[in-house]
């Protein structure tokens, strides 16, 4: 079974998501794939069951390989509906406009999994970034493409056929075949970007959704409030800060983090010191771990990665990288290590 004391401390996702993916894949040997993670098909039939997010990522990647489809996750997303994510999906589909829909999904994503950051940003233009908060969790391409494709699918169901995003960004490298991406999104798609995100035309954010149903929204919100009692709470202030930083690809100032957490800078600093760290150390580790992933997953030069990580030149970036990760950036790119110092 997937419920063990060791895994309870890991990021998790509802098993019904994997069940939907397997149903779409129609594999003959699903049992053998699940067995590699100590699971079986019976685990997926538990409506309240969860599994480690890391195992979900590995299985998603293996399913794509078994299908022989490089863009399997993206292609699969086009056939999914609100029922995949339950109440969160139905709230999205019944929201009055896109801004309300995305903010509702962001606030209720904990009912599905606790491994990602997802929200609406208004500047420099409306966009929704999607980020797996732990940089050690890989492989992620299938999940990221599936997730952005699924959100795009929900938006089309909400706003109708006249909608299309202005652009779509992916952090990972450009695939060998690009046609599927632009066919799905019907918009320009860019790779090796600083975040995974869907960008919108401002007018689409407030355009009234024809299927708005306030009664269904209220009912599903009440149900989600009941689910909140069973959510996976973050146990430390260090993890709270890491979660906030994960939602800000370029990092966040201390005041911004404190405002989101509802504490003063002095209080946060004291609580982090009690846990053996500081906000500065967490911010630096966040930037370096993100840089390590860019080195592993993109074709950006070391200088380009350094600049995106907030360093003006490669010398200071290399020193900081070695302090956190051990090897130099170039050595890491040639032989990525699973753990950091």
TrEMBL record:
Which SMART domains did the record assign? HTH_ARAC
Protein's recorded name: Putative transcriptional regulator protein (AraC family)
Record keyword Cell inner membrane present: no
Q: Which GO terms describe its molecular function?
A: DNA-binding transcription factor activity; transcription cis-regulatory region binding
Provide this UniProt record's keywords sorted from A to Z.
Answer: DNA-binding, Transcription, Transcription regulation
Which residues are in the HTH araC/xylS-type domain? 239-335
Q: Which GO terms describe its cellular component?
A: cytosol
The organism's taxonomy opens as: Bacteria, Pseudomonadati, Pseudomonadota, Alphaproteobacteria, Rhodobacterales
Q: Does the keyword Signal apply?
A: no
């Amino acid at each position: 079974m997937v419920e063990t004391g060791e895994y309870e401390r890991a990021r998790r996702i509802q098993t019904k998501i994997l069940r939907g993916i397997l149903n779409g894949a129609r594999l003959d040997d699903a049992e053998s794939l699940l067995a590699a993670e100590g699971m079986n098909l019976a685990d997926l039939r538990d409506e309240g069951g969860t599994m480690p997010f890391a195992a979900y990522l590995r299985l998603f990647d293996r399913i794509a390989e078994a299908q022989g489809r490089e863009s399997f996750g993206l292609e699969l997303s086009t056939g999914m509906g609100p029922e995949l994510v339950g109440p969160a999906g139905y709230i999205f589909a019944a929201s009055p406009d896109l801004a309300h829909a995305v903010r509702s999904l962001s606030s209720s994503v904990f009912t599905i999994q606790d491994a990602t950051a997802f929200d609406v940003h208004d500047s420099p233009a409306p966009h929704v970034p999607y980020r797996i908060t732990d940089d050690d969790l890989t492989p992620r391409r299938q999940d990221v493409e599936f997730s952005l494709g699924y959100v795009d699918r929900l938006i089309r169901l909400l706003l109708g056929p006249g909608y299309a995003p202005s652009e779509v960004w992916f952090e990972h490298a450009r695939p060998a075949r690009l046609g599927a991406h632009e066919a799905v999104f019907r918009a320009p798609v860019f790779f090796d970007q600083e975040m995974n995100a869907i960008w919108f035309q401002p007018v689409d954010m407030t355009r009234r959704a024809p299927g708005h149903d306030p009664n269904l929204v209220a009912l599903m919100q009440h149900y989600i409030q009941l689910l909140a009692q069973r959510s996976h709470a973050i146990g430390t202030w260090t993890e709270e800060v890491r979660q906030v930083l994960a939602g800000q690809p370029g990092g966040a100032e201390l005041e911004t983090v404190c405002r989101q957490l509802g504490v003063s800078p002095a209080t946060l600093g004291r609580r982090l010191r009690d846990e053996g760290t500081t906000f500065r150390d967490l911010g630096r580790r966040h930037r370096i771990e993100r840089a390590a992933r860019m080195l592993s997953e993109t074709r950006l030069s070391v200088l380009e990665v350094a600049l995106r990580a907030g360093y003006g030149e490669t010398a200071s970036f290399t020193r900081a990288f070695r302090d956190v990760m051990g090897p130099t950036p170039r050595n890491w790119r040639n032989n990525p290590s699973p753990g950091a110092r």
